[in-house]
Amino acid sequence: MRSRNGNRPFILTHLALIATLSFGADNYYIGYRFTAKNTQAINEKLSISKAMQPCSQAISSPILILKRSSGESLQSLLEREESAFVEFAAAQELRVKNNESFSLQHSEIQNSLILPTRCYAVEFNNESVTIAATK
User: Fold this and answer.
1) Contact 126, 53 (CB under 8 A)
2) Which runs of E-coded beta strand occur in the chain?
């Protein structure tokens, strides 16, 4: 069945994408941590490593599609599109850690935003990368 503009229905495209991700995707462990002290950024780390064994193939429903240049690595892509990935991953799981210390002379507040390391199915295409969290 085709819609008026000649494209296949939207749902079939998503089902095909999920099927592709569940069979042909590479698995990567990705984690992120951002720390600020007294509202000034002091540390930011994005860690990426390829999974040695396949992760669970059960794909969570949200997916992230990012445009990439040919031959661009996942590391450089996620560094360039960091805010989009952090928003996507924060919808899955986000932890916030807060440390406060006060004295008569000064106060110190340190906050950390942590996306725990988890497995993602990553499908590389010619002009894009599709990322989906596995369960």
Assistant:
1) no
2) 26-37, 40-50, 59-67, 95-102, 107-124, 128-134
